[in-house]
Design a protein that fits this description.
With about 475 residues, the chain is an alpha/beta fold. The chain contains 19 helices and 18 strands. A hairpin with a 3-residue loop joins strand 11 and strand 12. The longest helix is centred in the middle third of the chain and has 23 residues. It is elongated and about 130 Å long.
């Protein structure tokens, strides 16, 4: 607006107006879009609850408040039990329905000041502030179990929904957000390891166990880096005439202070720090080195084998590492056997995993691959004819019941016949008694492995065992038969 005066003294003003309705509307749209983008950036698309980034911000703020007061902050780490089976059996839409229902049940059961976030595929984290102690956190965790555990409607039926919960409490000391999350995750692991569908709290006992696990993880990384692991070898022996067929390579770790770490503890420990592939790579070298020794000792017809985990099969350097290792030692692809656990190859209901392609690649290279622990996983009879394998190892559970359960004997004999038809070499694991061995022989078993025949042993003991074992080496004319069913 501007003021003006005419020569005759008349005053007037000029007012300029502009319609800004459209600008105001644009600003409103911009603000709405900004809020929407902020929500997308901080919330999970599927369930609508906050995501990991928002959870981290919330936890940091809660801890900062707690440090200024005498109140406590708790973390509940939540995992859906058997979620993979739901996806595999009913499809991903069913899994999504369970995730949405879980998120909604958690949100409704929580206090207004708490936050639930989805931090992984089937993992949720709940942050609880303004607590007086661990009992408050246990009470909230118990309420969540009651609220979530129960069927979820799906199409014309329902799906099972059950959670396991690990709880950790900020104790007013120097616990960081990262430590609190690690503690709750460790408590959750304890629940899933022992019995699912419950709540476990990170207490003094778990703290001691967690500290030991953390130390062992660091020591294992060092042992792998320095190649301070040991490898034992267990023989595979033919039923008749008692010839040694092969040697399976098994990792062992002799800890400097804790002594021998059993495989039951070593393998989960390696999985927790993602070094299974590195362990398997060392096992490859150990198996190939043993094969060189066997040749030098005069047992050149005995083959060696190693176990290939899913991590090793997925490793981009696996095949090249194996082939180059053979070439470096002047060995051939006929000298080694790769054992792959059945559950690695097939998911529930016989669904093939991507590792079937790796097995096919191994076969194309001329490498002998065996399906290990057959009968304990999800492979069906139809898959045996489709998979590029040349042998199966029957799971030790067969030996445990072969004498008492007639049905197991019938199924086993049927599978023996099928393997013979498919020209697959067969080994039965877990043979511990002479009675088991005799029954297996009656049913058509050709090769066995177990404590009855030979325990896993280090290289020096293996040399002595071979020298003392009657008819220990396979005659050259036997080798073609070894690579087949008989």
């Amino acid at each position: 607006m501007s003021l003006h005066r005419e020569p005759d003294g008349t005053r007037y003003s000029v007012l300029v107006c502009r319609d800004v309705t459209s600008n105001i509307e644009k600003e409103r749209q911009l603000e709405a879009t900004t809020r929407q983008l902020e929500h997308i950036a901080s919330h999970d698309d599927l369930t609508g609850v906050p995501n990991r980034a928002e959870m981290s911000r919330f936890l940091d703020a809660a801890l900062e408040t707690a440090r200024k007061t005498d109140r406590r902050v708790g973390v509940l780490h939540i995992d859906l039990d058997e979620f993979k089976q739901i996806n595999d059996t009913h499809g991903h839409p069913a899994g999504d329905a369970v995730l949405k229902a879980t998120a909604e049940r958690l949100r409704r059961a929580l206090r207004k000041e708490d936050l639930v976030a989805r931090v992984g595929g089937d993992e949720f984290v709940v942050i609880c502030g303004n607590l007086t102690g661990l009992n408050d956190l246990r009470e909230i965790g118990g309420a969540l179990l009651d609220a979530v555990n129960g069927p979820v409607k799906w199409q014309n039926g329902s799906l099972g929904c059950q959670i396991s919960v690990g709880a950790a409490l900020y104790d007013g000391q120097s616990t960081s957000a990262e430590d609190l999350l690690l503690q709750s995750d460790f408590a959750l692991y304890e629940v899933k390891r022992k019995r699912r569908g419950r709540l476990a709290t990170y207490d003094a006992e778990l703290h001691r166990k967690h500290a030991r696990t953390t130390d062992l993880q660091a020591d294992l990384l060092k042992a792998i880096r320095n190649k301070d692991l040991s490898f034992y070898f267990q023989p595979v022996v033919a039923q008749q005439p008692g010839l040694v067929r092969g040697m399976e390579t098994l990792v062992r770790w002799h800890h400097p202070t804790d002594g021998l770490i059993t495989p039951d503890e070593l393998i989960p420990l390696a999985q927790s720090i993602n070094v299974i592939a590195e362990l398997d790579m060392l096992a490859i070298d150990a198996a190939l080195d043993l094969k060189v020794k066997l040749n030098e000792w005069g047992y050149d017809s005995i083959l060696t084998s190693f176990n290939a985990s899913s991590e090793l099969l997925a490793h981009p350097d696996f095949c090249d590492r194996l082939l180059s290792g053979l070439s470096f030692r002047d060995l051939t692809t006929d000298d080694i056997i790769v054992e792959v656990i059945e559950s690695v190859v097939f998911e529930s209901h016989g669904v093939a995993t991507p590792f079937v392609k790796t097995i096919s690649d191994l076969d194309n290279f001329g490498i002998f691959t065996v399906l290990d622990d057959f009968g304990s996983g999800n492979a069906g009879i139809a898959q045996l004819a489709k998979l590029a394998i040349r042998g199966v190892k029957f799971d030790k559970s067969i030996c445990l019941s072969i004498l008492e359960d007639p049905t197991v004997a019938i199924v086993y004999k049927t599978l023996i016949g099928l393997c013979n038809e498919l020209d697959l070499r067969m080994v039965t694991e877990g043979v511990e008694t002479q009675e088991q061995a005799e029954r297996l022989r009656e049913l058509g078993c050709t090769n066995m492995q177990g404590y009855l025949l030979g325990k896993p042993m280090p290289e020096d003991a293996l040399r002595r065992w071979l020298d003392d074992y009657t008819a220990s080496a396979i005659a050259p004319e036997e080798r073609p038969r070894y690579l087949k069913a008989n």
